[in-house]
Structures are given as C-alpha cells and as structure tokens.
Here is the input.
Amino acid sequence: MGLSTFDQATQCLEFVQTELVDVRMPFDILRADSVEILPDQINHNKKEITMKTVKHLLQEKGHTVVTIDSEDSVLSAMQRMAANNIGALLVMSGGQLVGIFTERDFSRKAYLLDKPVKDTLVKEIMTRKVFYVRLSDTNEDCMALITEMRVRHLPVIDDDKVVGLLSIGDLVKDAISQCQFVIHQLERYIYDTPGKI
Ligand SMILES: NC(=O)c1ccc[n+]([C@@H]2O[C@H](COP(=O)([O-])OP(=O)(O)OC[C@H]3O[C@@H](n4cnc5c(N)ncnc54)[C@H](O)[C@@H]3O)[C@@H](O)[C@H]2O)c1
Here is the structure.
C-alpha cells in the first residue's frame, strides 16, 4: 500500500532536516533576496534553515479558535462544525479548556449512547485527554505528536491560555511548502552555479 500524504510529508520533512540542514547549507546559496523567509527561520549563527515553529504557523493561519461549551448539545456542535467547515471544536467550561470534540468522537461514540443528538451533551462524548503544543514547538514536534497520539488537531497553549489550533492539514501543507522551497533552492544552486553541472 502506498504512503499517505501525511507520511510522505513527514518523510520529506525528516529528509530536509537530517540530509539537508545537517550539511549546514550556507545561507548565501539560498538566495534570500528571491524568496520570502521569516527572519526567525534563519539562525544567523549557524547559517542554516530551521523548521518553522508553531508561532510562525499561527502567524500565517491566524489565532481564531472555534469552541463549544461542554453543556451544549452534540447537535449544536455538529452544526457549528458544519457552519465553519471544520472537523473539531475545543470544548470549554467556565473559560477553561476541558476537552476536544471531533468528527471522530461523533462517528465512534454518539450512536453508542442510543439517544437523539439533540439530547446528548458534548461532555458525554468529547475527548477529555487533550494533547497540545506550545508556540516554541516546531512543525516536526507537532507531526510527531499527531502521529504518535493518533490525533488530528492540536490546541496551542501559551501562558495557560488557548491561543490557536493547528490541524493535520495545516502541518502537512507547511511541510510540503518547506520541501518545495528547499527543492527549488537546490535546483537553482545546481543549475545557476558555474561548474556544478
Ligand atoms: N489549503 C489549506 O490551507 C488547508 C489547511 C488545512 C486543511 N486543509 C484541507 O482541509 C481538509 C481537512 O483538514 P484537516 O483534516 O486538517 O482538518 P479540519 O477540516 O478540521 O481543518 C481545516 C482548517 O480549519 C482549522 N480548524 C479546525 N478546527 C478548528 C477550530 N476548532 N478552531 C480554529 N480552527 C480550526 C484547521 O486548523 C485547518 O486550518 C483536508 O483536505 C486538508 O488538506 C487545507
């Protein structure tokens, strides 16, 4: 069976880190003038590209978080997910994060209760153990957590507050663009450097 997009992106990300970053590519071959690199992505001391952090990813994606109260009904939760075209809601109670409600919770747990979704509360079927990341974590940290814990959404916590959410799609999209960026720069290095080919 072929690899999923997520597995391919993970492998690509690992390759970029281990094979490319570890050879300490000098910054001048990356032609910073031709591409947009966030300043924090460049470690000026080591002159190498570093992985984007959650902070960078949220700067691009935004900090909006769609939530639901734990006492709301599963029907409301499903309506909110449909209205926002998303697959997860962070569950709050008294301003605190108490769980996460996902399409998977609905598909695997709701019918087991054998009662109408309008009479089922979010807190009855939400996932209480929430894996989260911090602003300083890297895309690779997030992908490792998503893979190991088999989750698709990671809330971002800063100073005990929820400041964003990243999904598997956000991480794969970023990993692919990182790989495309490095491939593009290597192609330019190979074809534009006299004597390289
Ligand atoms: N083109 C893009 O920028 C992009 C980004 C992410 C996902 N996708 C695509 O969307 C599809 C489903 O994505 P998914 O499986 O990652 O999950 P998803 O449908 O739950 O997430 C889609 C987007 O909504 C955001 N999101 C989800 N729940 C949120 C919440 N409660 N609060 C705030 N933001 C929330 C995610 O961060 C992501 O950006 C996939 O096909 C994926 O490839 C595209």
The chain has seven helices and seven strands. Residues 19-48 have pLDDT under 50 and may be disordered. Residues 61, 64-66, 86-90, 152-153, 165-170, 173 surround nicotinamide-adenine-dinucleotide (CB under 6 Å).
